[in-house]
Design goal:
Layout (H helix, E strand, L loop, with lengths): L1 H15 L2 E9 L4 E5 L2 E5 L16 H8 L3 H11 L6 E11 L3 H11 L2 H12 L1 E11 L6 E12 L1 H17 L3
Parallel strand pairs: 4-5
Antiparallel strand pairs: 1-2, 1-6, 2-3, 4-6
Length: 177
């Protein structure tokens, strides 16, 4: 009986303990990879092709629910809720680029400097942002180059996922009223 309570206490602790998920994305013309922690999910080296499994038909119950969702209404309500149980996000994003001409690189830099606030507002819907570092660095050379590096940590607990899912599901059901 004591073992049961110990296992139950550990499971409850794990449900409410936020787990940091570290994601690293790197792209350049020479190399690219996506890593979660230190496990490489995708890289330039291609694994041998495997046969794809047979895809089952979509279930009608969920497809009917998805058709009836007004996403604009749902997003406006989610933004107004300002949930305290949103997952926490720390984001570092570096974007290095060079176009064939220094003048074009400078003009493109001016346009790209308008993007970070838009990304911040979009991510604010879903996450509670703790650290947001998005840097755009032009390289004034006469060759085309592009390098993207991203590193983010998402603190997520299963209790937060369940809570957010219940709230979103209630909003979807109350949407028709």
């Amino acid at each position: 009986m004591k073992l049961f309570f110990i296992v139950l206490a550990i499971i409850i602790f794990l449900l409410f303990m936020p787990i940091p998920i570290k994601i690293i994305i790197h792209y350049s013309p020479e190399d690219y990879y996506i890593k979660i922690y230190k496990l490489t999910i995708m890289s330039k080296k291609r694994p041998p092709k495997r046969d794809r499994p047979v895809v089952k038909k979509e279930r009608k119950f969920f497809s009917n629910i998805y058709k009836n969702i007004n996403y604009k209404y749902l997003l406006s309500n989610m933004y107004s809720l300002n949930l305290r149980f949103k997952p926490l996000l720390k984001l570092n994003f570096f974007f290095y680029y060079s176009l064939n001409d220094a003048a074009r690189t400078a003009i493109f830099y001016g346009a790209l400097c308008q993007v970070p606030p838009l990304i911040y507002i979009f991510l604010k819907f879903i996450f509670k942002i703790n650290k947001f570092n998005l840097r755009i660095n032009p390289i004034f050379e006469d060759k085309f180059s592009l390098r993207i590096e991203s590193s983010s940590i998402i603190f997520l607990s299963f209790a937060n996922i369940i809570y957010m899912t219940i709230i979103i599901f209630k909003k979807v059901l109350n949407q028709g009223r």
